[in-house]
C-alpha cells in the first residue's frame, strides 16, 4: 500500500478550509425604499448613499467573525480527526483522519456560515430602512 503524500494532504486540507469562509459583507440593501413624493431624485440618491454607509458600519466585521468561526470549526475537525486516526492507525491513519475531520468540520460549519450571512443581511436591511425612513423616504409597510 502506497503511503499518503504529505503535500497532497496539505493541499486537500487547504482547499477544504478555503471553501468554508463564504460569508461576505452585504453589497447593498435587499429592501425597496422609494423617495418621498416631493423629494428630488438627486436628494434621494444622497440619502441612499449615506444610509448604505450607515448600514455598512452597523454590520462591519460580522462577516469576518463568521468566517473565523467556520474555519475554526473545520480546523478543530481536522485536528480531532488526525488525533483519532493516529490513535487507531499509523501516520497514514492520521492523514486520513485529518482529511475526514476537516470535511466533517466543513460540513458542520457551512450551514452556520449561511445562517450568519442571512442574519448580517437582515441587520443591514434594518439599519438601512431605519435611516431611509428617518430621512423622510417611503418604506413599504410604514406610514408617517
From TrEMBL:
<dbReference type="InterPro" id="IPR027367">
    <property type="entry name" value="Gly-zipper_YMGG"/>
</dbReference>
<keyword id="KW-0732">Signal</keyword>
<protein>
    <recommendedName>
        <fullName>YMGG-like Gly-zipper domain-containing protein</fullName>
    </recommendedName>
</protein>
<dbReference type="Pfam" id="PF13441">
    <property type="entry name" value="Gly-zipper_YMGG"/>
</dbReference>
<feature type="signal peptide">
    <location>
        <begin position="1"/>
        <end position="23"/>
    </location>
</feature>
<feature type="domain" description="YMGG-like Gly-zipper">
    <location>
        <begin position="69"/>
        <end position="108"/>
    </location>
</feature>
